[in-house]
Amino acid sequence: MLTSQWDEAARTVALNLIEFYQRSISPRKGFDYPHRILYGSQSCSSYVKHLLTNRSLSSAIKFSTQRFQACSRARQILKSQKTSAGFRCIVIPCCIPL
User: What InterPro entries would the database entry show (predicted)?
Assistant: First the structure.
């Protein structure tokens, strides 16, 4: 049962951090994420929040990592197409190769 308590605590901390980011940082950062720009899907933080709410912690971590990798690939696609006027990507982890 110690593992499930740790999972729940980790999930709660992660969800609180995402909430803080979405409320306090995201509205002020001045740019959007490559995956969202290229595919018109939900933001990475919303996607990870959904995973943490609806999946096991290990599954959420696995799919989050895959999403960050996809966001990094989307950045490369946008960069090569040069169709994203003013496109810039600053935030880790979506902009670093995973």
Answer: Membr_insert_effic_factor_YidD
